[in-house]
Structures are given as structure tokens and as C-alpha cells.
């Protein structure tokens, strides 16, 4: 015989301690006591960018929502601080050149070398225990119709729960960004079976073990307590799955609270889960409990014998009198139903493989909580009970006695969060799962920068001279190359993008440059009428000729338009399509005289009157327009209008980026204002983002399209500006939606290091933390640097980047570029 007694242990297991029974609806779990549980992920506003008034308003709205709940309801707000090491993998990027690959490799190494990066994820869990059937039987017959009376108690409870959480979700969506935890169905490779995964159940498993991975549900999703089971060993320091468990409990509250009073707890550089639980009470039940508390304090005001014999032997207890007054105020608040009272329990759960390291982390959290005016202790004998009380849906373990109202609760729970950005590119035109544009390690919380908000990537960049604007634009252009078939068209001023463009093999054109100067300005000539095959080409060419004629002071009449259109049609059927060919064929003298300035005999003929076009647009184009800007409106408008046309024809759906540096020079002219207005409205359909950068705030205001800039550019990046507080400048920031706190952030930010980004998805001050390789190509725009680069290019040709890096003190330059 074999002794099997030792294998038949029937004592309680971990599954007996958790309440999860089965999945009864999409994202709804039934608990063993009949309660129903649902969950959401949410993200609140950035507390650093919010004013006191905004934080108070959020707290007020949360209190108004929660005060609708009563007995039977329980709220749990979870803030999980988890490590972040997911810099975009090399396999997910498609950098076509060694330099941009080397820049990204340097950023990846910097990010992964500094392992103190954490981000917060917030979840909200609602649990409701339906009233017992015998208590609601009369209600069913008095207030229900015949079909409702025939429905089972389970169906009635589930429908009531669905209605309630839908209403709560709609209210919360007006305050925070919220997403329901739902069940997902994934078709397996075999093609005939479907696997189901529930986000809520995955989160429950994460709360228990600290491991976040999908869990496949059985075909009949019942007995879920066995799926979340873990190996628990009780003790002064319990262990879960061979990892030590520490619980820091908040056991004392300050005399008053304010919104975000515990925000620092949500920013610590370590891994933990902060659980805040609130068990609601009805107004009548809360008043009864508060009344008992009032009577206890009332008895302490005067000694027992003084109360018995109606004497006054000594002074009254002033502290007891104050507590009586506070309790009476609480009773009045409960009666007003403007707030709801309940039991509040808050703990911080920490896991670690090393017990000594766990104790150090727990002590650090305890000291931080105490520094904020709260009482805190590291649980020992009560550690297991405190851990169980932090699990979603557990309402019976580790109940704290003092009652707290929802107004204080809204101040205590972690509603505000540091925005970490979208982990994938949000543009729906990009392949699914595309990496973010760039990832920066700014403090303990990383930031993933994306220009897009849904399918709109238009961006405004404001900043004074010398604040790092050109460096930011060049880095954006370099990092944008990570997307397959990406195109970048940059209109530069000051040659700040010359090092990057030359290093990656792009085309750098210095429009209107001195023939003796560097670059390709002397060799570049345009033939704007070269393409007349389609109706749209001919219509554009006619409009372009009209602009040239009007710039010479000629008033365009119908005869002029007819003559221009007739000649364009004739030119389309001929071999010669230069501007001189057009002038020789047009019949109206005024048009001939007006176009003389742009023909080969005039001053602009070297640019606009070529037999064949010298512009061959590649994947990375940079147009240096500083010299062109100095030529005046009559010369600037025709050239830029033609360049814009050529760029538009290249937008065929591939990821594209148009960068307009010093855009205030273009906003000052009506032709360009209309073109920019058109681009901001239609280019998103062509998968193209426009980045408008300017240092002149006043010119942006005078442009007349500031409303279009504000509405069509959801993403705004502001560089440090010490004058942001001053009258005139401050009003501009207010008009684009900044509050006083955001203006202070812009005014106090560190020039050339920090940048402040706002979008409908969030707000964040970040530091790009550029390394030496990146700075060599995106931050080297001084005159001396450009001279050295030109000298190296003449001496070494396309291999000049290696020698450039060596001159800047990077010893392994060749290895970095060859590895990339």
C-alpha cells in the first residue's frame, strides 16, 4: 500500500482567500459573495502643468461623481509604478543611412544604460454587491413591468450594474482619459479556434504576482480563483511566488487635505503598487456611525462623576470638544448628501527578490509618506491581511475604522499622472505597432514624443533665438527617418540642417546662393512649366504665371487670364517649355514686360528660366532660403510657390514631414498664408505632417491665421522663453491655451536643454539628453563648425562624418558608424 495521506491535504489554499468566481459579461467578473466587478485604465492631467484652480476643479468633479454611490459599492484606485526599458528595437526601425542609425543607437544605449526609468499606470476598479433578493422583492412588483418581474435576480443585478457603470464612465470621461478593461478574442493560427483574454483578469493577476502578461481564459470562464492562484507563505515578511512581499500602510491622516497631496508617492524611482480602497456607506448608515462617534467624544468632554452629580470639579477636555464639533460638521455634511462617507484604506505593495533590499524600499516609501504629514508603518503581523485587502474586489480584509468623505478621497487618490506619451506611433496611416518618433529619458519617468494626435501631425514650435529650436528640428528630422519610405522636406534658414543633410546623403540646395559659395545654389535652376501633362498641372501653371505678373504691379484682367491659359495650352503641346518660350508666344505686351524680370535676360532668369529642371527630389531634401528671403517679395514668392508645388506632388501616402524653419517669414505674405492654411487642412490625408517653427510670436499673431494654427496644430512645442511672463508675450501664450502654471514652466525652463510639449493627449517638460554623436550632426550649426565640415567634405568626400566625429573627440567614430 502507498500512503497518500500527505498528498490529500485539504486545508485552505491561496485560491480560497481570493473572491473571484467567473466572467459573466464582457469585462465583468462575478465574485464569490455575489458582487460584480469592472475595471478601467485611466490617465489624469499632468499635475505639474495644472494650476491650483484646475486641480481643485478636478477634485470637485470627482467628488460630485463619487457622491452618487452608496452602500454596496466599493472603489479601488491602483497606481502601479513599473520599470521601462522598451526603447524601440532596431528591427522596428528602418533608418536608411549610417548616421541616423548611429544617432538612434547612441540614444538607445543612453536610455538602457540608465536603468532608473519608471512610468505610472493607473487603474480604477468598481465593485457592487446587489441587494439580497428578499429585500428587493417588493420593489420588483411595485416598480417593474411584467417582463422585468419574470427576469431572474442574476439578470436584473447584471443589467443594473451595466447601467450604473456606464453612467459613471460617462461622467469620468469628462474629467480623465479613461478606457474600459474588456475581453479580447484572438484567432489562433489554426484559423478555427478563438482564444479569449480578459484585460481585467490580467490586471488582477498582476496585482497578485506583479507579473503582467495575458492569461488565456477557459471556454467556460469559471473557477477563476484557481487561475490566479499563487504560492503564498504567510509570515512577518510574506513571500509570493518566491519573492518577498512588503506592505506599507497609511495609518494616519493629516488634519486637512488638498488635491494631489500624495503626488510625490506616484513619482518614486522604484517598482511598487499603490492601492487606495474606499467602501461606500449610505447617508443614513454614515450618520448612524458618526453619531456613535460623536457620543463617545461627548462623554469625554466632562468626567463621569461630574456628569453623574451635575458638578464642575475641573475644566472640560478641549480636545474632546473640538472632536465633537468636527463630528457634528461631518454629520451635517452627510445629511446634505454633497459628500458620501466610507472606509478608506491605502497601502503600498512592493515585491523584491532580496529581503534586505525590500526593507530598504519599504523604509524609503514610509519616510516619504510621513514627510507629507501622514502616518505610515511597515506591516508585519498584518502584512498578509493588508495585501489581501489591496486586491481588486476584496472588501472584507484590512478595514480602517475612521470614516473619510469623498471630498477628501478625491484629494488622496492618485488622479494626476506624469504623461509618458504613446508607446506606438498613433497615426493610423503608419503600420500597426510603429515605434514612437523619439524616446527621451527625462528624469525618472521616460517620455515618448509623437507629433501625431490620431492622424494629424501638424506641430507649432515657438521659441526665441538661441533656445535650441534648430537642434530640435534637426533631431526630429533625423528620428523621422526610422519609418519605412519616410520623406523629409525642410525649408531652412541659417544652414542649421546642412551637417545632417550632408552626412546622410540628402540634397541640400542653397536657393539664390552666391555662385562662389558652398552648396548647390549655383548649379540649381528651375523649369516651372516643364510638367503640363494633366489638367491640374496646367491650372497650376496658369495661376503661377498670374502671380508673377501681379507681383510686377499689373492688374490681372479676364483678357490676361485668357491669354495665359491659351499660351499654357499651346506650350503643353510643344517641346520647349521654358519661361522664355512662354514669353515669346504670349500676345499681350503687358504680360511680356512683366515676365521679363524672370526670364534669362532678367535678374531671376538663372533660377526660373531653365530648359530642364535641375531639382531632383529625394527622400531627404533641405532648401536653404536665407539668401532668397533677402531678395524681396518679387523673387521669393515665385520660387517658394514652385518648390511647394513640387513637394506636394511627392506626397503619395508615404510618411512625410515638411519643416518650415523661421515660418514667420512666410506667414507675412498672403500667398504663403493661404498655402499654409491649405496644407494644415488637407495634407493629413496625404500622411504628411507640417512643422511650423518661429521665433517671432508677434508675426504669428499678425498673420491672420492664428486661429487656424491653433486649431489645426494640436501639438505645440514651446522652447524656454524668459519673457513669457511679460505683457504682450504672456497674452499670446494664453491665446494658444496656456494657463499661468504652463507659462511659468516655459519661463523657467533651461534654454537649449528643456522643451515643453502640449497636446490633447497630455503635457510634459522634457530634456532630449543629446549625446556627442547626435550633437555633432544636429547641434553643430555655428559658422566655424560649417567651415570645418566643408573643408572635410572637400578632402574626404562622403566619408567626412567619420573624420568629423574624430575631430570632436569621439575615438570610436568609425566603429560607431560601421556598426550602425
Morphology call: elongated
Cα(first) to Cα(last) distance is 68 Å
As for the number of domains, it is 5
Number of strands: 26
Q: Show unreliable segments.
A: 515-522
Using the CA coordinates, give the radius of gyration: 34 Å
Major beta sheet summary:
13 strands, antiparallel
In which range does the helix fraction lie? 40-55%
Would you tell me the structural class of the helices and strands?
A: alpha+beta
Mean pLDDT: 85
Strand content: 15-25%
Number of helices: 32
Could you please describe the fold and organization of this structure?
The protein has 32 helices and 26 strands. The chain is of the alpha+beta class and 820 residues long. The protein has 5 domains: 6-87 and 105-281 and 340-412, no CATH class; 283-336, no CATH class; 445-515 and 618-769, P-loop containing nucleotide triphosphate hydrolases (Rossmann fold, 3-Layer(aba) Sandwich); 525-614, no CATH class; 782-820, no CATH class. Strands 1, 2, 3, 4, 5, 6, 9, 10, 11, 12, 13, 14 and 15 form a 13-stranded antiparallel beta sheet that branches. Strands 20-21-19-22-23-18-24-25-26 form a 9-stranded mixed beta sheet, with helices on both faces. The protein starts with 13 loop residues before the first helix and ends with a helix.
